């Protein structure tokens, strides 16, 4: 009889949960689950271990991986130091764990609940007691929860009320999400215990007592204030002087997360226990290094050929592959065959490949993932052809070196080691290689290691000083003079990985007083810019170019694969460095333990310092593998690592297209990259933004067009005469004939003068107003037309490039010309056009740009229109030209040259700008305000509330005024009165008053001007109705103030009383006027002799949408403001920010530590110290009062804004047969959340589209809402918009309108718009995708804009996984709370539950706001 071999899965069956015997779990287990990227495999294995069900591991040669000993040692030492200080304040403190170890019977029980209760009951008024390590235990939601509290502070106030502070002590640099969750568990346990005993606690507070960060000049004033506050709290509460104490202000989010984790059969923990082990998602990350079950997961993955073993595969990609049935590395590797040059799809896989390519997450990288899977399978022994280098990866950051290019380069390989237990650098190594005539000629090694464990920041300072000094000497030794005999050479830095670079930069930033630290910091921090990069992160670079088979970035293993000889160091440093591979009789060689971390384990350094604790008297010695290492071994190993870095760098491609600037080595310590002025910082900001945009565009266009179609980047089209309009063909033919006639008449010579009649004969005819038509050609693309249309990122209205699919080098003789793919650089100079439409049958309509365009080759590029040839194939690409950015840079360059700009002056010297208003102006302003009150009292005009009146009546003499206007608060309408009030003041004083209205968009600019015209008309009507009242308060000249609109986009959007202008003449002739212009139009208006700062005319400038406006474009608008003019900046930093390309929040350059030029104008002014005066509007005239109440609680209370609405208009009631639709459209609930259990969608979600369809049909067909003005559907991704088009073919013809007011669109395009009903489709539901990309979806500014577009009804459709998402990133965690509060605090009324298409759906409505 054949018996099936036992597998790991057989030992890990689903767990049956017995209420009579609750499953054990601890707060630490839950915290570790979060720390390990919410790995459900960890949770499941932890549950098995708690049941003592992992005793089979040795049979498979596996063991639990111990926590790195230094973590335990550092934690113990930190706790002991804390306990000693606390005992000085509380000498009667009781250490429960020590009493247990000492055998005290009272403490030998399973828990210490009774000890805690007894101490609470014994407290006298105005006394306190501390308990160390009391074990709390109780049941939470049916789970047996127990854990040891580090410190429990109990106190009794003078009224006899008892209070508790639960404190978790952590030897960490920061308090983290998982620490707070652990504390929330303890709070629930304490509440259960005291409740069961009938003991009342008046309050429970939670605190994280942690080591904290070392001081750094890069800490902001707010960060320094927080650190000082937390240190003071630690002393005041506990007497601790060596740690920071974070007291959690709001524990509710963490308490709610525990309910998500534990409560009910659908909870994360219950679902994890019940699922088959193979179905539990997991993915290899750097966090796996420190997991107990590292070996279990790696063995399981090797046995099952799990996709996680594929290098660089992301969680969303893995999830998408699994959804299409690809679950193993072998399946992925065999999807295509490799013929030595390219991957070819076999006939049997064509259908599957087509499906995979229809997925936006997979399409761009499918071929790369197949290459990587084939490399992995080849490493495992399969005879699969593959490539060593990945194709289409662009150019390396490593500079090419030859006799002609960088011949005397100095390469500096750096290996820093960071002691995470002390927060300091403790070892620095460098290998300095000097080239001569392009060949490595000289080497110097510099390695410095502290003599003992660090005791203070001064130790790190001394280490850096010694190392930098020796490094400078080494550079001087290896340097070779340049061709002119001068000691100048380009320098390039190479570090192992991003973690090493971060540690180096942090250390240099902490020690700015060290000679040479600042120039080295500036060199290492430079990673983006038009100039060549100064630093290469080796592991990232290798992962980008090389097709390595390792799933993890191990410096030791990669070097060994290149036959690098580690010598004796492989044995000495085996544990946690070289112990990654295992050899099994069934599996052969496989990855036994994942090793992402490239730092030398700290245990080896502490062994070298002879600072490890002595071996235990009995039992195992956890440190035995480290004790043999000496100081010389550590230094020798670092030297080996540096040579391994050099070897790996030599195996990477070099970039021959970049030229690095040389440094004068005699004064390299004077090198600085910090901007000297704000203008310099603005210029660097614009350059980096442009650089990142161009690099991204270039990388997207490296693959051939057939792959770019699958990535959504390009379209391949064919030009056929039969597709063209006859009138266009006729005109083109006639113009071609005229061109030939001209050549005949001139003999092909330039400068030949023709007679008037001849000129008329050869002058080209104007083209008819019809588009150029090109047909999509997918003959060489592995997808059909529907998929290509769904994938493409191109939209009507886009500026595009039309380029030939194939190019030839015309410099070669004709018989030697071979066609090649048009390169990304060539694409930059191809003809431009505007995309008019993409029709469902595959026709693409273009409007050619037939002008010659001259570019600056940074922001714009030269181009000239060339008509396509019949039958030829072309590609359509997005146009990377940035005319707006170019204009911003030109304005900023003038600022750098000293141009006067009123806004720039207020940013650089806020106190230096004063406005002196004559008494008459103040009186005129006050009279206008009194008139508004009089009109309200007479019932002629509505009253203004205190917030509006603060804006209108006050701050008249403020040089700069900020106005925060939450959604629907009538910013533009109130601004019209505020501006007219100020204008009346200047009229009364006999002074000119030219008011400029400027917004980022044409639409918002037109809105402002229309509001001015509307208020003028309103006041004119009042003058007719109440002439005496009007005359008593208002200057009638206000009614006839001219309105000018500079270069509008659509004349129909401009009020009829406004005059359209394109020059400054009418403004100069009108001393009192309103001028509306976008920033770009302002620059065009003022441009004289290639300069923009020429004729400031505005006495008052209002900048609206300032939370979306960056500083350069704001300065562009402010060129029109006179130096003493007044500036009003209107915005809301709780709505959408400026769009940026670079990840500025993590930018390390000192320029952007000193100048936060990436922030919006509104946020920049708000963060000035002190800020300008601020007026805040509070009443929304758009939203239903319940929607406004939610936004007030969730967002605006933190700004002190009592945001509210009086509106209570709802949808009309109607009999609706579909119960789900009836529940969602119930007029009693203006805010509704539809929660569903679909969990596989990423950037498109057909299921959510299917839920939207009946809602739209009912709203339009039964409730009579206008499809284009009454309904708005907000989606996060364009792909979901296309899915909606497929789901709703009839209705969507009306809904999918391609203009600024489109009914179905992304949040960005909806800002400033409003609808009766807004439906938000969250779209994303795949948990892996959410964890990887949730920062985009969960941004509260995006949700704020989405929710606040609704006048009567808001319906949010989202997967349950969105509300279950637990982010460990601080910012994303806070962002997620806005979504969670919708269900937790607001939409708590169950309206309907059932199934749609077999998927569970629930409809929840809001509770009426009191």
UniProtKB/TrEMBL annotation:
<dbReference type="InterPro" id="IPR038726">
    <property type="entry name" value="PDDEXK_AddAB-type"/>
</dbReference>
<keyword id="KW-0227">DNA damage</keyword>
<keyword id="KW-0269">Exonuclease</keyword>
<keyword id="KW-0347">Helicase</keyword>
<dbReference type="InterPro" id="IPR011604">
    <property type="entry name" value="PDDEXK-like_dom_sf"/>
</dbReference>
<dbReference type="InterPro" id="IPR045055">
    <property type="entry name" value="DNA2/NAM7-like"/>
</dbReference>
<dbReference type="InterPro" id="IPR027417">
    <property type="entry name" value="P-loop_NTPase"/>
</dbReference>
<feature type="domain" description="PD-(D/E)XK endonuclease-like">
    <location>
        <begin position="85"/>
        <end position="297"/>
    </location>
</feature>
<dbReference type="Pfam" id="PF13245">
    <property type="entry name" value="AAA_19"/>
</dbReference>
<feature type="domain" description="DNA2/NAM7 helicase-like C-terminal">
    <location>
        <begin position="1159"/>
        <end position="1359"/>
    </location>
</feature>
<keyword id="KW-0378">Hydrolase</keyword>
<dbReference type="GO" id="GO:0004386">
    <property type="term" value="F:helicase activity"/>
</dbReference>
<dbReference type="Pfam" id="PF12705">
    <property type="entry name" value="PDDEXK_1"/>
</dbReference>
<dbReference type="GO" id="GO:0006281">
    <property type="term" value="P:DNA repair"/>
</dbReference>
<keyword id="KW-0234">DNA repair</keyword>
<dbReference type="Pfam" id="PF13087">
    <property type="entry name" value="AAA_12"/>
</dbReference>
<dbReference type="GO" id="GO:0004527">
    <property type="term" value="F:exonuclease activity"/>
</dbReference>
<protein>
    <submittedName>
        <fullName>DNA helicase</fullName>
    </submittedName>
</protein>
<keyword id="KW-0547">Nucleotide-binding</keyword>
<dbReference type="InterPro" id="IPR047187">
    <property type="entry name" value="SF1_C_Upf1"/>
</dbReference>
<keyword id="KW-0067">ATP-binding</keyword>
<dbReference type="InterPro" id="IPR041679">
    <property type="entry name" value="DNA2/NAM7-like_C"/>
</dbReference>
<keyword id="KW-0540">Nuclease</keyword>
């Amino acid at each position: 009889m054949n018996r099936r071999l036992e597998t790991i899965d057989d030992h890990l069956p689903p767990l049956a949960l017995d209420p009579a015997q609750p499953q054990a779990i601890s707060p630490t287990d839950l915290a570790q689950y979060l720390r390990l990227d919410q790995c459900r495999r960890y949770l499941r294995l932890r549950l098995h271990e708690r049941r003592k069900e992992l005793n089979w591991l040795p049979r498979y040669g596996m063991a639990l991986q111990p926590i790195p000993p230094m973590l335990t040692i550092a934690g113990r030492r930190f706790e002991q130091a804390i306990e000693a200080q606390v005992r000085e304040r509380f000498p009667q403190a009781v250490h429960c764990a020590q009493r247990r170890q000492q055998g005290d019977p009272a403490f030998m029980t399973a828990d210490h609940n009774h000890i805690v209760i007894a101490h609470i009951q014994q407290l006298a008024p105005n006394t306190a007691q501390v308990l160390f390590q009391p074990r709390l235990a109780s049941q939470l939601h049916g789970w047996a929860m127990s854990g040891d509290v580090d410190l429990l502070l109990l106190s009794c106030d003078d009224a006899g009320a008892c209070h508790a502070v639960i404190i978790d002590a952590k030897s960490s640099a920061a308090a983290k999400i998982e620490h707070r969750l652990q504390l929330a568990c303890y709070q629930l346990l304490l509440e259960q215990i005291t409740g069961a005993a009938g003991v009342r606690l008046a309050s429970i507070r939670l605190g994280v007592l942690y080591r904290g960060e070392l001081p750094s000049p890069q800490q902001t004033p707010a960060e320094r204030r927080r650190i000082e506050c937390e240190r003071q709290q630690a002393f005041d509460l506990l007497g601790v002087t060596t740690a920071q104490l974070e007291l959690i202000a709001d524990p509710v989010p963490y308490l709610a997360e525990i309910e998500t984790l534990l409560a009910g059969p659908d909870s994360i923990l219950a679902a994890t226990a019940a699922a088959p082990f193979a179905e539990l998602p997991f993915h290899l990350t750097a966090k796996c290094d420190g997991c107990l079950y590292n070996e279990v997961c790696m063995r399981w993955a090797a046995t099952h050929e799990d996709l996680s073993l594929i290098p660089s595969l992301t969680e969303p990609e893995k999830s998408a592959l699994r959804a299409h049935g690809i679950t193993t590395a072998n399946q992925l590797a065999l999807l295509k065959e490799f013929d030595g040059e390219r991957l070819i799809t076999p006939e049997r896989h064509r259908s599957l490949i087509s499906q995979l390519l229809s997925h936006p997450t997979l399409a761009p990288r499918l071929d790369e993932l197949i290459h990587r899977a084939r490399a992995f399978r080849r490493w495992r022994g399969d005879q699969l052809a593959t490539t060593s280098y990945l194709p289409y990866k662009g150019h390396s950051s490593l500079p090419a070196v030859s006799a002609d290019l960088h011949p005397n380069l100095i390469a500096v390989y750096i290996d820093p080691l960071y002691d995470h237990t002390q927060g300091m650098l403790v070892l620095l190594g460098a290998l300095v290689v000097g080239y001569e005539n392009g060949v490595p000629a000289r080497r110097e090694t510099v390695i410095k290691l502290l003599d003992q464990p660090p005791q203070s920041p001064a130790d790190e300072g001394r280490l850096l000083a010694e190392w930098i000094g020796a490094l400078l000497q080494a550079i001087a030794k290896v340097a070779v003079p340049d061709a002119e005999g001068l000691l100048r050479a380009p320098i390039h830095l190479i570090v192992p990985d991003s973690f090493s670079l971060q540690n180096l930069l942090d250390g240099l930033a902490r020690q700015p007083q060290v000679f040479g630290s600042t120039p080295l910091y500036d060199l290492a921090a430079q990673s983006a810019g038009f100039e060549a990069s100064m630093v290469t992160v080796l592991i990232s670079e290798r992962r980008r170019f090389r097709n390595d088979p390792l799933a993890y970035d191990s410096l030791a293993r990669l070097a060994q694969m290149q036959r690098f000889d580690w010598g004796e160091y492989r044995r000495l440093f085996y544990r946690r460095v070289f112990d990654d591979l295992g050899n099994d009789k069934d599996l052969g060689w496989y990855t036994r333990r994942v090793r992402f971390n490239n730092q030398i384990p700290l245990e080896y350094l502490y062994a070298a310092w002879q600072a490890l604790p002595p071996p235990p008297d009995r039992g195992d010695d956890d440190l035995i593998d480290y004790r043999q290492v000496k100081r010389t071994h550590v230094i020798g190993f670092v030297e080996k690592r540096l040579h391994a870095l050099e070897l790996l760098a030599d195996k990477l491609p070099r970039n021959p297209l970049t030229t690095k600037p040389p440094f004068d080595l005699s004064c390299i310590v004077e090198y600085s990259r910090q901007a000297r002025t704000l203008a310099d910082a603005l210029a660097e900001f614009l350059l980096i933004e442009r650089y990142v945009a161009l690099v991204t565009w270039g990388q997207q266009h490296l693959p051939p067009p057939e792959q770019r179609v699958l990535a959504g980047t390009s379209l391949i089209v064919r030009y056929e005469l039969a597709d063209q309009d006859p009138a266009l063909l006729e005109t083109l033919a006639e113009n071609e004939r005229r061109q030939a006639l001209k050549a005949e008449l001139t003999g092909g010579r330039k400068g030949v003068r023709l007679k008037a009649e001849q000129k008329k004969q050869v002058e080209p005819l104007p083209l008819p107003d019809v588009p150029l038509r090109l047909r999509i050609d997918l003959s060489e693309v592995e997808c059909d037309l529907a998929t290509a249309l769904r994938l493409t990122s191109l939209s009507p209205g886009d500026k595009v490039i039309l380029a030939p699919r194939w190019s030839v080098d015309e410099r070669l003789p004709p018989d030697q010309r071979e066609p090649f793919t048009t390169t990304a650089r060539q694409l930059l100079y191809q003809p431009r056009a505007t995309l008019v439409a993409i029709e469902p049958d595959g026709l693409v309509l273009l409007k050619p740009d037939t002008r010659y365009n001259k570019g600056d080759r940074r922001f714009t590029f030269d181009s000239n229109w060339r008509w396509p040839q019949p039958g030829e194939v072309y590609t359509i690409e997005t146009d990377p030209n940035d005319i707006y950015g170019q204009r911003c840079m030109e304005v900023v360059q003038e600022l750098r040259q000293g141009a006067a700009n009123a806004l720039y002056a207020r940013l650089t010297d806020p106190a230096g700008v004063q406005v002196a208003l004559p008494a008459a102006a103040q009186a005129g302003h006050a009279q206008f305000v009194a008139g508004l009150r009089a009109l309200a009292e007479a019932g002629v005009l509505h009253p203004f509330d205190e917030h509006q009146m603060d804006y209108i009546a006050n701050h008249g003499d403020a040089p700069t005024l900020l106005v925060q206007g939450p959604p629907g608060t009538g910013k533009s309408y109130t601004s019209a009165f505020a501006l007219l009030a100020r204008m009346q003041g200047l009229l009364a004083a006999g002074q000119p008053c030219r008011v400029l209205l400027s917004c980022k968009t044409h639409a918002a600019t037109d809105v402002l001007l229309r509001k001015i015209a509307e208020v003028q008309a309103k006041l004119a009507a009042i003058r007719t109705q109440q002439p005496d009242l009007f005359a008593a308060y208002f200057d009638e000249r206000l009614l006839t103030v001219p309105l000018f609109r500079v270069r509008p986009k659509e004349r129909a959007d401009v009020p009829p009383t406004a005059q359209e202008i394109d020059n400054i003449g009418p403004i100069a002739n009108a001393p009192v006027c309103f001028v509306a212009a976008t920033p770009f139009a302002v620059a065009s208006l003022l441009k004289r002799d290639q300069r923009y700062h020429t004729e400031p005319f505005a006495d008052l400038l209002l900048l609206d949408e300032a939370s979306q406006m960056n500083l350069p474009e704001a300065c562009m608008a402010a060129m029109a403001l006179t130096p003493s003019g007044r500036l009003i900046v209107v915005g809301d930093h709780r709505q959408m920010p400026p769009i940026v390309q670079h990840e500025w929040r993590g930018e390390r350059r000192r320029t952007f530590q000193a100048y936060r030029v990436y922030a919006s104008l509104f946020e920049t002014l708000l963060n000035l110290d002190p800020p300008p005066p601020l007026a805040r509007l509070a009443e929304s005239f758009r939203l239903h009062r319940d929607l406004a109440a939610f936004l007030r609680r969730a967002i605006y209370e933190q700004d002190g804004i009592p945001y509210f609405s009086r509106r209570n208009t709802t949808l009309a009631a109607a009999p609706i047969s579909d119960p789900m639709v009836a529940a969602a459209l119930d007029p009693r609930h203006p805010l509704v959340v539809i929660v569903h259990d679909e969990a596989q969608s990423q950037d498109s979600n057909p299921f959510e589209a299917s839920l939207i369809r009946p809602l739209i049909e009912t709203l339009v067909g039964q409730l009579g809402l206008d499809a284009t003005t009454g309904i708005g559907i907000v989606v996060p991704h364009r792909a979901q918009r296309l899915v909606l088009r497929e789901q709703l073919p009839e209705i969507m013809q009306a809904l999918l309108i391609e203009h600024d007011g489109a009914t179905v669109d992304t949040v960005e395009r909806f800002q400033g718009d409003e609808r009766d009903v807004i439906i938000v489709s969250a779209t994303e539901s795949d948990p892996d995708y959410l964890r990887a990309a949730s920062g985009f979806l969960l941004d509260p500014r995006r949700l704020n804009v989405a929710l606040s577009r609704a006048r009567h009804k808001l319906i949010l459709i989202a997967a349950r996984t969105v509300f279950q998402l637990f982010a460990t990133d601080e910012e994303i965690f806070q962002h997620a709370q806005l979504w969670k509060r919708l269900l937790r605090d607001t939409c708590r009324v169950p309206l309907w539950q059932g199934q749609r298409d077999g998927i569970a759906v629930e409809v929840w409505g809001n509770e009426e706001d009191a």
